[in-house]
Structure formats: C-alpha cells, structure tokens
Design goal:
The protein is an alpha/beta fold. Helices cover 38% and strands 16% of the residues.
Length: 407
Amino acid sequence: MRILQINTSVNTGSTGRIAEDLGRLLMEEGHQSYIAYGRTNNKSSSHTVAVGNRSSVMLHVLKSRLFDRHGFGSVKATRLLLKQIISIDPDLIHLHNIHGYYLNVELLFDFLKRVKKPVVWTFHDCWPFTGHCSHFQYVNCNRWQTECHQCPNQHGYPNSWFIDNSTRNFRQKRELFSDMENMVLVSPSRWLGEALKNSFLSYSRIRVINNGIDLERFRPMDGMPGKYKLKKKYLLGVAGVWTERKGLGDFMDLRKMIDPGLDIVLLGLSAEQIKRLPEGMIGIERTENIEELAKLYSGSEVFVNPTYVDNFPTVNLEALACGTPLITYKTGGSPESVDESTGMVVDKGDIAQLAEAIRSLLQKGKQSYSAACRSKAVELYSKEERYGDYLDLYHEMINTNREEKRF
C-alpha cells in the first residue's frame, strides 16, 4: 500500500505523533508512507511534503481574522499539494486536522471527489461539522445540529475579529463533505462518534478507533531529569498550549485549595506564563524529549486534566501508561479512559470537587492505582494494536475500491 496522510504537523504534538507512528507502522509492514504537513514538523521516518510556507499561512490567518473564512484560504499552496498528490498516486488518503491555516478545503474535496481515492478522515476535534469553532462544548452550543448562525464562539479558535460567517461556512462544509462516495470517518472517542451521528455527516460511515501510544517509551520510570529540580511531591498537568480552555485558571484556583506541601507542575507553558505563576506552581516549557516526559508522568502523584474542550486526550493515556492515576473533567471523550481503578471524573469547573478528588486519591495512595493504570494502557491503548486497526481499515477500503473498479 502507498498511504498519504495530511495533517497540520508531523512528529510533534498529539496529532503529529499519531501520524508519525502510523507511518512507521506502515513501513514496518512493508508499505509506503507519505505525510503532508502544514506548519510544524520534526524529523520523520516517512516521506514528508510541506504544504505552503510562512507567507501563505499568515495570509490564511488574516483571511480568518478579517472574514471568518478559515479553511478557505491557501489556494496556491493547496494547488501545489494536489499536483504532488497526483505524482505520489497514493492508494488511500488519510486526513487528520485539515484546519490550521494551511489548506483550502474546497479545492481539496473537489479534487478528492474527482479522483475517487478511498479516504479515511480522523476527527481530532469538531471543526469539520461546525460553521466556525473547533470545540462547540466550550460554549455549550448545539446550533451545529441544525445550522450554525450568530456564533457564540466567534472569538474562539479560529478567531474572527469582526465578521460572523458561520452560516456560510456551515453550508459550504455540508455541501463539500457530505457526499463522499468512498470515505470512512474515524472518531477516537465514543463521545465524538455520537456527535457525528447528530451532525450533517450522520449518513457517513463512522468508526471509533481509540488513539494509541508507544508503551515502550511511556512506561513507569525511576528518576527525574535533574534540570527540573523537583524536590516535593507534585501533581502534573500537560498541554501543548496552555489556555483557559485547558484549565490554566483552574490550576491557579486549585493551588489555593490543596496542601501547600504539594507542588503543581505544568508542562507546556510559555516563558511569559511561567513568570506569572504563584508560589507552589512550577512551570516547564514544552519538551519533545519523550523520556523526560515519561519521567515527569511517572514521578507525579496524580495527573490532573481539567480540560474544558477535548476529544480523546493522549495525555491521559500517557499518564496511565506511566502508572499514574488521573483526574479529569466530564469533558468530551476525556472520561472514557478513566474508571474507578485508574482515577476519578469530576464536574467541569467544580474546583472544590477537583480538590476533594485529589485528596481522596492521595489518601488512598498512588500505589493503589499504578498497576491498574498500566494494565489498562497495555490492554487498550497500544499503538501497535490501535494503529493496526487503521491498517485493517486501509486494506478493507483499498480492496473494496479495486473490486468496484473491476465492475
């Protein structure tokens, strides 16, 4: 098989690592892997294709900010990508995040309908079926179930300064995405799978395939990277970018409600954010070093994920694989990786309940949860097994496509 994946990033961030790991598994099985990426990349084992450049991204950002037309810029960059796709001639195209200021969805889907290649599309958020936002749950809006209008999240990602084009965007996405003949939509969570069934994509073929992680790299580890100088017991939070949507403010409030002898460590903060942290909170900038990350997970008493918008966060899985119990809000598919033997789920935004859950887990002791956390990760979230599910889907769709062409 020759597989082309398209994503905002490659081998960095959660979706970029998913694309990279899928590519590696493909090549281990003797197949060819290509990854087209829009904005950020680390060295990849797959053949990579850059889409656009800094100038095209900035113009797309401007179009989004001024006209609320995210996903409808990057015309030249997308046309060049389509020429490269023709040259690669993949057997199947796997879409991940196609938003992110680098791709024109109208050109892409018109092309996909013409060439009739099998398409797998993994939904890492809700942007494809809304008229504007990537996470409708942040403002508890359900207009996407009928037709988006007067968007209450206009200034959320992708931020539009002045114009609300949510109705136009919604109608155009519905037209572009709804009548794909040979496409399967994949949701990493049951929650998003149910949302898809209530969207204009409800007549599509939908499958749930959980995210997978590298269980060899994410495992219980002793020791701590010396440069972090963590002396106390600590709680850990991890995010690619820390915003209020990821619960940064909630951690600030939580600091006032828990034992002062317990530090809160947040990984992924900017230098400016680190400067503003109160006493008892330690900030660490983003790291691409998986061993350091695994040691931070392993050394934590509890992993805390007070996210307000999420699908099926891989940080939860990484914590479990390192033997660390987790506490998360009832947000999207985040609770799906938690049960009573591996952690707790609390109401979104209830800081008092969050603090009480932490005290409860600490009283019982991390050792009471560690074995079950690791076992759950091994049983359900091995990247070889979950991404093997994708390879099975690729084979199924490619073989079906070949049979249809024969007749």
